[in-house]
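User: My advisor, Dr. K., asked me to get a structural model of this assembly before our group meeting. I'm new to this, so sorry if the format is off. These are the inputs:
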Amino acid sequence: MTARVGGSPNRVGGIGRVTGGQAYVADIHLPGELHAKLVTLPVAHARVLGIDAAAARAVPGVHLVMSAADLPAPMPRFGPQYRDRPVLADGEITYHGQPVAAVAAESRDAAEAAAALVTVRYEELPAVTSVAAALAPGAPLVQDPSLRPGDPLAGTNVLREHRVGWGDVDSTPADVVVEGTWTFPMVTHFAIEPHAFIAAPDDGGIAVWSTIQHPNWLQRIIAGLTGLPLSRVRVFAPDPGGGFGGKQHAKYEPLVALMALRAGRPVRLVLSLEETFLAVRRAAAEVHVRTGLRLDGTLCFQDVRADYLIGAYVDIADRVVGKGSYLAAGPYRMPSARVVARPILSHTVPSTAFRGFGNPQVNWAVESNLDEAALRLGIDRLEIRLMNLARKGEAFIPWDTPADGDWAQVVRRAAELVGWDRPAVRGRGRGIAVGIKSGPTTGLSYSTVRLLADGSVVVYAGTSDMGQGARTVLAQIAGDELGAPLDWVTVVMGDTAVVPYDQQTSASRSTVLMGNAVLAACRDIQARLRAIAARVHGVDEAAIRVERGVAVLPDREIPIRELLGPGLGRLGGELIGVGETRLDAAPEHPLGGAPAFFEFNCTAIEAEVDEATGDVTLTRHVTVSDVGKAINPLQVRMQDEGAAIQGLGHTLMEHYILDDAGRIRNLGAIDYRIPTSMDLPVEMVSDFVENEDGPGPYGSKGMSEGALLCVSAAVAGAVRDAAGIRIRDLPLTPERVWRALRERDRDDSGAASGSEEHTEDDA
Amino acid sequence: MRPFSYARPASIAEAVALLATHGPDARVLAGGTDLIIRLRDGSARAAVVVDLKRIPELDPAIREIGGRLVVPATAVMTDIGADERIRQRFTALAEAAMVVGSVQIRNRATLAGNLCNASPAADTAPALLVFGAEIVAVGPDGARRVPIDELFVRSGETTLRPGELVTSIELPLPAGPLGSTHVRRTRRRGHDLASVTLACSVDGAGVTRLAYGSLGPRPVLGVDPSGTLADPTATAAARDVVLEQLLAGASPSPRSMRASPEYRLAMLGVLARRALATAVARLAAGGGGARP
Amino acid sequence: MTAPGETRVAIELTVNGRGRAVEVAAHHTLLEVLRDDLALTGTKECCLVGECGACTVSLDGRIVDSCLVLAVEADGGSVTTVEGLADGARLSRLQQAFLDRGAAQCGFCIPGQLMAAQDLLDRIADPTVAEVQEGLAGNLCRCAGYEQIVGAVLAAAGHADDTLLNGPASDPDAAR
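Assistant: The format is fine. Below is the predicted structure of the whole assembly, which you can bring to the meeting.
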């Protein structure tokens, strides 16, 4: 398969992934390393009265037991938005899983044995673990008001109120108003690679290895906590084994770094899967939607109140809520809209970024509500979307980036692939929904590209390749522009001492922002090559173009590789290009900057429902995304299909189940179910639209979150269509579906339930 | 995991002696797919782990002896599910064995382990109840047989005496043709713990045996000697009366997070009817019939 | 180093065709010994309860979750890990198919997927889609690259299932 842009070469870094040679953080060992283990309490909220580590310290091999008392006062705190998260619990724990102490020992066994011997005296305090409990009058405050100086909401568990809107919803006329409340559960990332951290004193500085997605952000946090200059904090970020947002921001790196500095030795902390459940999750949400429409289906207003249940510390959750709810009115022409979204603090695991970034929660509500409106009005659910969808160039949010794609084309393609115009097979139903998400609103990516004397290329990019395939895409761009075959291109990532700054790997930004930086660096080199070609061939520089691997002279084309020998001369050397992509903040914009692009997806589902058991079988799952340009079509497909299946997880089976003490009952892989290879749709069909109308290289847009956004609404729409039941709470477990079926039958008073005398095999 | 020592007895007698010496500090290791999880999470502790897999008397080969099929304590689910005699004559057991965990788990997990853990959700237990299996236990006082229905007490507790270990499970070969099947409810299609697990058999005399688990502290067996359930000419109402009696032993826990009692009970009825229909159809087709 | 209360046992294993004599802690799993004692880190650790399959290796010709097997249980046995699949620098047919079909995304589950897939192909040379899905159901992939993984296994078995690479069928009923 061609390696050029638009082709699907084998993944760069793929060989290590199929041979076991790829070194993830947990595979790295340093001489003299100590193994760390966290000490936690079996409750969600407690006052810590005392910590006795004598027995733990007596365990042979134990070097260090660290608790708040061993850290500076006031307790160092960190966080990407608020500096609220303490390195270790400081007198109080506010969620189940928060570490109160940590042990470092010569072996994992010794660390585990010692951690079990740390005795913590504590007084359990009441915990709030739901929106209702957190908002109840007199509810215990999750964050001490002293952490929120000058904040009028400091005396409540409401962190903030995000308001966005236009027009006047209350005075916008509508023929019908459809409203409903929809809930979305707490779910967790469940990357198969559990988070892992290593820190080591490094000649007066410190080196940190982490499964982090944002190495430069981590570098800044560690520098801030240690007082070291950025240049003495070296962050190694080997390709993560799945991130999905859960590895964006620092979690235990500050703790491990301070332990390593204290011990004077490397310290490693590899979380168990259970510990990752207690470290990262997606915000739950309760979303109330009022949609106003005219009788012909034209949308009049969207009125959305979304309460997101975030955790005990903010992490990036406030941004998740603000940005995730910003497009709640959808990709539609909307005369007026009002969105009020609140992050609600609770005594639960801090929620963080997770693929879709707050959008899946509101999308589930708003798109499902639109389905109900269509049914009420007797309008086809595809038609109601098409008639309201913003056309390309239309300012569907009055002040913001206009619709940047032919979205109707995407929707029509999905409808075609699911066979919307034909009746479904008896017993099956169909659903269709659209999803939209803002791309990055600010950004800064640098890349350095070196064209070596033999024509091979080294690309330096601070992006993390956590599976999405950034390494391959960036290699394709550089190889294509500089005329090098893919196996002549090396992409260096994940070392802040070597690779120039990149703000972050998030919001599906890397192909656009880092891609443009790599492209700019290649252009920088191409400009030098132009001068070289002019000099070597005695042609006026203005008459020469250098692009896509060749120098185009008036009378001929010369491959770049052939220019290099004569151009660089006997000493050889190399050409170095530097590229920068900057997306500056716009402080007056509600998001602090206009989206660089929108991710747009349409998902169409065909499903059948087992009337006796409530089982939902997806017979066909269609996902179509607007990607601008597929630089690597195979990777586009694998990312979209993966996102679609991940979406099926929270749609059909995933949720944290909490006990009365606020602990996660289904902690771990046995009772937290994610889709296996047997839980796939009978048919998965993915496609994409390419109009080369994006801001990235060759007209590309960011992608890979889009296919997750509207899965829930499309599946629930298909279930509604197949069985006549509307479920407003995710996930759609067989039991929930069964209950809804029974309710339906009760309402239909007298209709046979059809649960008897089935002869098909259930196995 | 907390440290323990490891013993690899060369005979059943040696294993029994080890259990006698160490008492509750000794844990019997067969497949390990449950024990190692529990040793790691701290819900089980051991000073010594006694591995049965190298005892020549416990060779895992499944054998037919004197009208009984003998499944040694070391036989794993993969081999039980693949055994042609089990597939043909104890179809429900073969089917149950093949839904225990993944390929990896089935390659290690043993039938004996599945029983000794006494999980109410053990998938093989209903089939063994239906087939009237007996376990052979050996202890300081020698060997004894325990009818499977007398083995289970409640989750994690059996009638095995201290120091006893199960050496085999024995299934009486049915005299005539038998139609049977195993069905279950899970939260996803991929492997999972059952929220209802059920086996059903129907013999040539019309006797239906129905057993179910995950619906109370222990799996429950019900028998319809009247022939009503297997009788295609019986009215639905007549069959419902009998079925209700057979299923009356269900008492699912309200504390489970896998499914509510209400749903479990409803699914018990659904699965029982489906399984009955399959078993009857298989009997009519001459018995046997585990899918490949 | 030896932990308190720990019993050490000398065992012999054949790992990827090579004999290894190693003294292990009695309570250490095969996974721990492979990764920590033998530095074969291709086998991954995730759930430690036999659900995710990241630690899948072949033991005496059968795949197991190495997190649920004590190393001492494997004494005298023959273990194949992901590092044993390639013939030197030459990838196995299955590994090559995983690469060609884009089956590896983040890659963390892939060693286990490969071991399970190889085992499946050793048992069933020409599997159906359902058989592949069943055979790999003990191996979670959170990138959810299941379509590509299944496609790779079928490709390695000799199926020419090109729909996975060539885009969707335009007729929704065509593939039914």
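One thing worth pointing out at the meeting: Confidence is low (pLDDT under 50) at residues 751-763 of chain A.

User: Perfect, thanks a lot.
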